[in-house]
Specification:
Elements (H helix, E strand, L loop, with lengths): L3 H7 L4 H21 L4 E8 L7 H24 L2 E6 L7 H13 L6 E9 L1 H14 L9 H5 L12 E4 L18 E4 L9 H12 L9
Parallel strand pairs: 1-3, 2-3, 4-5
Helix pairs in contact: 1-2, 2-3, 3-4
The structure holds farnesyl diphosphate.
Farnesyl diphosphate binds next to α1, α2, β1 and α3.
């Protein structure tokens, strides 16, 4: 969900305002994804590197997350959205962690759309943690398979994405789903995230349907 800062700066607004508008775009996009019949949608909300941003910006994102869990996500739950978070949990403020866990429990029975929110997430950190777990468990190197590693990622139930959309004109993965996106189609869109919505999602899906996927085969 890239481009919140630039969206705000272009309007002479504080960056926090860009994130707020970004949260509105998230809601729009989830509702559009439901309409399009998408089963699973993962969004990158806060990276392991984002802690290095100014304190007031980090605080504004934590507050926004809190408010989104209190207000927006329960509304989406009424539309059948199951929400889960993936990433580190040990650095998230205690109160927010409690709300995250409650929302996950309360929406666990819903299945119209699975929303996955990457929060304090980094693809490299995820792989290191998975390897650490495997070593701790004493798995023998010769027994180690791809499935063993995949089972120890933050969210083993998260399907590998068919399509990864990067907004705001940047053309890189920036540490998002490094393992899971091995065969994903990538679509880059110049739209700044706060302006993203149904139309941009439709364009990305149209582009996806034109791609031929071979997964390394002929
Ligand atoms: C990247 O834009 C965006 C973020 C670091 C935060 C994303 C957070 C939201 C969209 C808030 C809503 C999300 C939830 C789940 C409540 P940027 O600030 O890096 O933009 P820039 O590259 O233009 O500076």
């Amino acid at each position: 969900m890239d481009g919140n800062g630039r969206w705000a700066t272009a309007r002479g607004l504080p960056v926090a305002e860009g994130h707020r508008e970004g949260a509105r775009a998230l809601r729009r996009t989830v509702e559009a994804a439901i309409e399009f019949g998408i089963d699973s949608l993962a969004v990158y909300a806060f990276s392991t590197e984002n802690w290095a941003r100014p304190d007031d910006e980090v605080e504004s994102i934590m507050e926004l997350m809190d408010r989104t869990i209190e207000r927006e996500l329960p509304d989406l739950a009424k539309q059948g959205v199951r929400t889960r978070f993936f990433g580190r949990r040990d650095r998230v403020p205690d109160e927010l962690r409690g709300k995250i866990e409650r929302l996950e429990t309360e929406t666990a029975h819903l299945d119209r759309l699975n929303l996955w929110i990457a929060f304090d997430y980094g693809g490299r950190a995820e792989l290191v943690e998975a390897v650490r777990t495997i070593l701790d468990e004493g798995v023998r190197p010769q027994d180690m398979s791809e499935a063993d590693l995949a089972a120890r990622l933050y969210a083993p139930d998260l399907p590998d994405p068919d399509l990864v959309i990067r907004t705001s004109g940047e053309q890189r993965l920036s540490n998002f789903l490094l393992w899971q996106s091995a065969y994903s189609e990538l679509v880059f869109d110049d739209t700044l995230w706060p302006d993203f919505g149904e139309e941009q999602l439709r364009v990305a899906l149209d582009e996806y349907t034109r791609r031929g996927r071979r997964f390394g085969a002929r």
